[in-house]
Amino acid sequence: MKLSFMTLGCPTWDLDTICARGREYGFDGVDLRGYLDTLDVTTLPMFTTQAAQTRRQLNAAGLEVSAISSSINACNAEAHQKNLDEAKRTIVTANGMGAKIVRIFGGGDLEKHSRAELAQTGHDMIEEILALDGAHDIHWVFETHDLWIKARDCKVLLDSIPNANFGALWDMGHTFRAGGEIPEETYAAIGPRVGYCHVKDATFDPSHPQAMTEQFADGKKVGWRYVLPGTGDLPLAESIALLKANGYNGWLLCEHEKRWHPELMEPEVIFPAFVQWAKKLI
Questions:
Q1: Contact residues for 63 (Cβ-Cβ < 8 A; gap 6+)
Q2: pTM over 0.90
């Protein structure tokens, strides 16, 4: 397995810093989810018209672009044209930067539509994206996130699109903490389709000032806070062992949401800690 970090976790780092610290900490790749003040990297020249130069600098530091993390919400019918426009831009950026994976969300509105209707919307949107020029050079991975945290829900959409260019992104924290699934349940539902993994640890500590209140499909989850990997309550080591036993050799990403939550620990702390912890498991 290879280790990556997401730029969401280091929103103040410029390219030179990304390269220097990524190499220093021992990462193999970087996932592009924002750069400095801009969230959508597909709008920035350094990742589009200047992609070759940027890619060379990253590669010289020993870093691949593991993925482009998009904001596409495939199951939101109201976002159809926005999704399509972003997909077209993302294909250009991913191919220019040598990224083989693009993350997408499910999204949608369960108050207005049944889950079956949302899944059909997602199916149609993803099929339309897969038909775009250049889309088949990319593995589009659907994250266990928002309304689609439970793997058994994700499986409905995955099963409807057997195309090898469409797969799952297993966020190990979400499926256990918010979805209530043990790793074996998640893997049984989507394991063979997993093409990318997000890893972050948390502990249940509702009295702590940094305890999170998050809105999920089945209501708010209160009382968790993020901690250094391996020090929390999530079955991350068990999940990685399960992947390893079944031949997964893809990316493990340290997901750190510093851009959204400035109070979280600095990337200079969590990123090297993640590498030291993960290398013992892979």
A1: 18, 19, 22, 23, 27, 28, 29, 30
A2: yes
